[in-house]
Amino acid sequence: MLDLLNDLLWSKVLIVALVGLGLYFTLASRFVQLRYFGSMFRIFAQAFQRKEGQLSSFQALMLSVAGRVGAGNIAGVAVAITLGGPGAVFWMWLVALLGMSTSFFECSLAQLFKRRTEDGGYRGGPAFYIEHGLGLRWLAIVFSILLLVTFGFGFNALQAYTVASSLHDTFGLPTHFSGIALVVVIGLIIFGGIKRIASTADVLVPVMALSYIIMALVVIGMNIEAVPATLALIVKSAFGLEPAFAGGIGAAIVMGVKRGLFSNEAGLGSAPNVAAVAEVKHPAAQGIVQSLSVFIDTLLICTSTALIILLSGVYQPGAEIGGVILTQTAMAAVLGEWGRIFVSLALLLFVFTTLVYNYYLGENALGFFSGKKPLLIGYRVLVIALVMWGSMQDLSTVFAFADVTMGLLALVNLVALALLFKVGLRLMRDYDRQIAEGVEEPVLDAKAFADLNLDPSVWNAEQAPGVSASERAEIGHSLHQR
Q1: What is the radius of gyration, based on Cα positions, of the chain?
Q2: In the chain, is it the N or the C terminus that has fewer CB atoms within a 10 Å radius of its CB?
């Protein structure tokens, strides 16, 4: 049954929806992800600005990169190549390039429709723009349940399984030891709340991403003469032009789209939950920053993994070795046995930050239903238990189940994005207009969006001069009680 649902979702429905809507968003927005690509880095510099008690745009970016950069970048790419051939990498690139525009709109909308919480912070995401933008609370509830099950439970077990199996292969470490270590560290962080989660991501994400890319550049440098042929192999295989993979074009597309979405999450509806938490002056600015995280995830880190595997000579069509073991073996073949150790340690960091991110997404989904503390504590305990359980299991069935719930999650979010696309275009054009007028840092004028169900304690009070963070929190609290 799971295989049947997966085949229907991924071989037919989602390929059309993801690629089709991504292409439509790209064309209708006049290639927003390319027009503002240079600006991403300027806005990225502004993203360090932070108000007291709030998360900065940079912290929100690091949180989303923490989630996007995980087992999918190391194990997922290897699985895509094993099952879909080198051509799968090309389709991962395409999904990412189109996904940058999808990410722009979903994260901008998440900012626009976010709500202030009682402690003065923010909550937002697809459930919020579905309820407040479309007025469909039942669909928002469906989305929240899928988000909770997929990220809060399923993906956390999968990430724990991936890192435990990697450490067992490299060091012979019993899987339950890895599980215990993960449980202890994760427990300390998630019981500290979103600000502790963000401060952890601030430090770990740049270190792990840069170190992995540098190591990939070393491998590429050692095999520089083979790089043009390898890139040609990827492109030819994507269209069935390479004899060894001529019959695998369907598998290449399916695996590229599926693993690409699992890795970069563009259109999935996960990153907007984090994007909404940031303090920004205009929602589109966060959309632009979040597009950059898709670029970092797929076009930098996933490509690094693909080149490591294909340049090493370890990969052979039809070979049984796959997943994270393939990536480790490829690195060891080029750099020696310490390369295997490096991949295990990199994966440990990647998975660790993703576990924390997955937990937060589940908490956000739970917060949509209830803010009761006993329920939140129960959720935290269950997450920790599933991390321990996942580290000791063979999770093939859980993988299949998570793929189904991930597909349904993406489908709900993409439907919402299609219905709210005109609102997203209004936001983008408002930002475009201010940039064209020479405004260095555009600001949202809430009066221009008075027809929408926005939280006045977020945007109206935000624009009013002299309103302190504590006063805005009081406004939010009174509105929440009403």
Answers
A1: 22
A2: C
CA distance 215 to 228: 19
Q: Which domain holds residue 385?
A: 2-466
Q: How far is CA 230 from CA 39, 83, 236, in A?
A: 31, 18, 10
Residue 472 lies in a domain: no
DSSP 355-412: HHHHHHHHHHHHHHH---HHHHHHHHHHHHHHHHHHTTS--HHHHHHHHHHHHHHHHH
What CATH number does residue 98 fall under? 1.20.1740.10
pLDDT for 168 beyond 90: no
List CB contacts of 14: < 8 A, sequence separation 6 or more. Answer: 257, 258, 261, 407, 410, 411
**Residue 479 banded pLDDT, cuts 50, 70, 90:** very low
Chain centroid, CA 457 distance in Å = 28
Q: Given this model, what pLDDT does residue 202 score?
A: 64
CA atoms within 13 A on the CB side of 72: 28
Q: Which two tokens stand for residue 109?
A: 């909308």
Q: CB–CB of 142/383 below 8 Å? A: no
Rounded CA separation 345/208 (Å):
9
**Helix extents (H) in 172-302:** 175-190, 194-222, 227-238, 249-264, 271-275, 283-294
Question: In this predicted model, what pLDDT tens digit does every residue of 456-468 receive, in sequence order?
Answer: 999 874 443 334 4
Q: Considering only CA atoms, which of 441, 181, 180 is closest in space to residue 286?
A: 441
Provide the number of structural domains found in the chain.
Answer: 1
Residue at 342 is within a domain? yes
Identify which has the larger pLDDT, 64 or 449: 449
**Count of CB atoms within 10 A of residue 453's CB?**
12
**Nearest Cα residue to 71 out of 83, 62, 80:** 80
345: CB partners within 8 A, 6+ apart = none
Better pLDDT: 201 or 422:
422
* Tokens representing residue 136 in the block: 């469909």
